[in-house]
User: Which sequence fits this backbone?
């Protein structure tokens, strides 16, 4: 019985690891796409890039979720830096709201 539980635990860890790996690579690619975007922002939908390895292809939703998370994190960071530079003293919650709105828009475009 303990052998069966051990095998199931290993399978579960492998699945969680694969999903986490795909999410992390998607987030890395999302951040990279944000850095390559024109200075005016991303008014056009950002195309979903091909994942670097076939494991990501098997988990496209995790990869895309990571990609969107990377873009949202980058947009929040740039909005927060712009507010800081302008001396507006914008609260972090408004920056988060702007980043979440962008993430929602990106997910709807895909």
Assistant:
């Amino acid at each position: 019985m303990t052998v069966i539980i051990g095998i199931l635990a290993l399978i579960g860890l492998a699945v969680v690891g694969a999903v986490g790996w795909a999410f992390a690579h998607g987030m890395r690619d999302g951040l990279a796409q944000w850095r390559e975007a024109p200075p005016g922002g991303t008014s056009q939908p950002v195309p979903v890039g091909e994942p670097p390895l076939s494991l990501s292809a098997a988990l496209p939703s995790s990869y895309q979720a990571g990609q969107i998370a990377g873009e949202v994190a980058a947009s929040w960071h740039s909005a927060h830096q712009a507010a800081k530079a302008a001396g507006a003293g914008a609260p972090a919650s408004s920056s988060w709201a702007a980043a979440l709105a962008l993430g929602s828009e990106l997910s709807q475009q895909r």
Residues 33 and 46 are 8 Å apart (CA to CA). Residues 42-46 have pLDDT under 50 and may be disordered.
